Hints:
The protein is 46% helix and 10% strand. It is of the alpha/beta class. Strand 7 (323-326) and strand 8 form a beta hairpin. Helix 9 packs across helix 10. It starts with 20 loop residues before the first helix and ends in a 21-residue tail after the last strand. The protein binds a DNA duplex through helix 14 and helix 15.
Amino acid sequence: MIVDPGVFNDDHQPRRLQHREAAVETLSRAFEPASRGRRAEDALLTGPSGVGKTALSRHALRRLEAAADVDTAHVRTLGSTTGDVLREVLRQHSASVHLLGTEPVSDLVTTLKHAVSRPCIVVLDEADDLPETDVLDVLRDVPLLSVVAIAHDAEEWLAHVDEDFARVLTHQSLDRYRVDELADILEARAQVGLRDGVVTRRQLEVIADEVAGVAREGIQSLRAAAEIADEREHHTVQETDVADSYERARREIRRSNLASLPVHHQVLYALLYQLGPGEVAAGTLHNRYDALGDRLYGGLPQHPVIKRTRRNKLMKLAEYDLIETLGESKNRRYQVTDAAIEPALDIPGLEGSLFRK
DNA sequence: TATCCACCGGAATTTATGGAAG
DNA sequence: CTTCCATAAATTCCGGTGGATA
């Protein structure tokens, strides 16, 4: 049923970008000075996960490159340091520059200033934490270089950046797609990626509605629906295949999220999983963690961490949609989002400690 | 109602880690 | 091998919040 799996990948770039005309226009206006050899305006692109911020920026850059002499770079900045970002920009900008990975930041700045001789636009993707670092200041200091920052929360981002910068930014926010818009997008993917006529427009609308306009989830659900139909040896996608596709799509995302996390997160997830199902009071979780202590890490080189650190890990787990936090302060409870996502780690049995307070 | 206590999460500070230079 | 450095991670500190208790 699937003839071209590539169109369902997260990084697939469709030929035409549908229903983002206004946003493309805004970015193009910001880039306009670059086509006259001048520095483009800096821009900020915000919106929820999976609504096409990255796709939009790539599209706008490609258009610009076709029409003007400019350089571009696209950097994923999540969890990167100033040095990491600068190195990546240099790598993409000038293939000739050879980098070791440990140069001092000041050297990188010098190199970059010399290398940039015509307008250069740098997309800083997943830049939510970026205002905490000084990458922005450094990059703005390079003549002819401008940035497009991509983040989730506009207000929070702007609050952490200095006022002058905030004032001159071109800000474009993206919203979730409407059902008919996302259905159009899914239709285009289906046309290329699936055999003709295996899904109906109505089914695409049902998917678009279920995922509330989040393109990434919609596309993954479409793929999952086709896979499920194949497994059940249906000739076309059935309603039941669609109905079962969402959970598979979301579960896949969660599974890979959990697998990507380090040991402390795994331990906390496993512990919460075992204390569940359902809500677990924060105190219960912390007490059990303290009671089990080193036994939680049997055989592993890591050791238990204090409460404050645990809270950071729990926050990360929540960001990844693996657990949910309920209630405030004293009333805080945690709970695993999806009991089908099994922990990767075994927690020693609770016998013996069960009756301790 | 006033006080206490446990928890939350921002910010500052300290410690651990890994690679480069001497 | 030791020293130095930068970065990431862990810890310390703390103001804020809300349920429990007297």
